[in-house]
């Protein structure tokens, strides 16, 4: 025999629903993510038992009913917000939702946690934000592609286009040498003038092992 749904068996009346909502609202830590005890699991369990006793139903029935009420409230509230925006743009009038529990549940709007990390970062928006706000913190631009990232990708593409394995290895080694020398301060001003830098860039340093490798004639 199939058991009827608990919500159907409860046969909630409007006064019972409003009483349930009032008991839930009175325990702020159940719905407001900023409340100090919001993450206190034991306190939350005890609170649900207290609410169930107040309205005369079991805990599971109470939790399911509140979940259903909150879902319906958010659906009604979103539709109302769209109508209100449209009315404001057209200088028209707007009628508030007629659902009897709407006003009683408006406290849920305050207690909703912000939706974080739901959307991928928009590079274009981040670039505009960076230009407008010079106090942008480094941790806020971790996903922003700066000039160094773009240049590194450019170098990677050019390396991939070198089909000869030996030539690609030599190029990678030369790049590593230049980066190492830069880290050691070889190209720092004013100890290293621009003329000397350009001469070295025209003829990058090559180890003796590499010189032998490069001068080995190709066998036919």
Automatic annotation (TrEMBL):
Residues 19-113 form the MADF domain. PROSITE patterns: MADF. It comes from the Eukaryota. Pfam families: MADF_DNA_bdg. PANTHER family: MADF DOMAIN-CONTAINING PROTEIN-RELATED (PTHR21505), RE18252P (PTHR21505:SF15). This is MADF domain-containing protein. It comes from Ooceraea biroi (Clonal raider ant).
